[in-house]
């Protein structure tokens, strides 16, 4: 079974998640290829896959444009296949906010409601992300210097690899079972 993992990553942390998902799917015997959403498979190539995992970094409550464009352009093909979506965005060690709400639930990107209706994905997962201040663009470095911003955009790697791997194994089990 052929699986395409397509993701949009601003600084590489989300691509790291996509690569880890791909590795887990490969361990299950699936034929997996990772694509950068900025250079996705051509339309004729997309049709050659049996399933898709599509993800994006989240900025200001939205997926990156390349991921959104891929989903919308490939919608007819994606509708015919099993699709899982993931988002990478929340930063920091806290899983709940000051009001006790789950940080992941409160950071679901705006596009996911639309994609849920138009693609009917098997599921969507929000993963914590990572940020290296040294790798940021000048504009993002400036934003982090605003009063209080560093606390809201903390530096570090907050990705939960066991959680990501477990989710990928769930996908693998679902695909192997139906193969």
Task: Describe this protein's structure.
InterPro entries: Flavodoxin/NO_synth, Flavodoxin_dom, Flavoprotein-like_sf, Protoporphyrinogen_IX_DH. One of its GO terms (molecular function) is FMN binding. This protein is α/β, with parallel strands linked by helices. The protein has a single domain, classed as Rossmann fold, CATH 3.40.50.360. Helices cover 42% and strands 22% of the residues. It has 8 helices and 8 strands. The protein has helices at 13-27, 43-46, 65-79, 103-106, 111-119, 138-144, 149-152, 161-178; strands spanning 2-8, 31-36, 51-59, 62-63, 82-88, 123-127, 130-131, 156-157. Strands 1, 2, 3, 4, 5 and 6 form a 6-stranded mixed sheet that branches. Strand 3 and strand 4 form a beta hairpin. Helix 1 (13-27) crosses helix 8 (161-178) and helix 3 packs parallel to helix 5. It is globular and about 50 Å long.
Helix percent band: 40-55%
The CATH class designation is Alpha Beta
Span between termini: 7 Å
Shape: globular
Enumerate how many helices there are, as a single number: 8
The tally of domains stands at 1
User: What is the gyration radius calculated from CA atoms?
Assistant: 16 Å
Q: Name the assembly state.
A: single chain
Low-confidence stretches: none
Sequence of secondary-structure elements: EHEHEEHEHHEEHHEH
CATH architecture term? 3-Layer(aba) Sandwich
Strand content: 15-25%
Number of strands: 8
GO molecular function, one term: menaquinone-dependent protoporphyrinogen oxidase activity
Protein name: Flavodoxin
GO biological process, one term: heme biosynthetic process
Pfam family, one: Flavodoxin_5
């Amino acid at each position: 079974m052929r699986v395409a993992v397509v993701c949009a990553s601003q600084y590489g942390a989300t691509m790291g998640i996509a690569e880890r998902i791909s590795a887990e799917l490969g361990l299950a015997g699936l034929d997996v290829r990772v694509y950068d959403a900025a250079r996705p498979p051509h339309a004729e190539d997309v049709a050659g896959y049996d399933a898709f995992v599509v993800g994006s970094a989240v900025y200001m409550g939205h997926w990156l444009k390349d991921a959104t464009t891929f989903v919308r352009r490939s919608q007819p093909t994606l509708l015919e296949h099993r699709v899982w979506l993931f988002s990478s965005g929340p930063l920091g060690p806290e899983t709940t906010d000051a009001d006790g709400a789950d940080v992941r639930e409160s950071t679901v990107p705006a596009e996911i409601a639309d994609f849920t209706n138009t693609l009917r994905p098997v599921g969507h997962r929000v993963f914590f992300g990572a940020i290296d201040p040294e790798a940021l663009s000048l504009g993002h470095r400036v934003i982090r210097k605003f009063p209080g911003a560093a606390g809201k955009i903390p530096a570090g790697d907050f990705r939960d690899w066991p959680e990501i791997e477990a989710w990928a194994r769930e996908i693998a089990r679902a695909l192997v079972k139906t193969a």
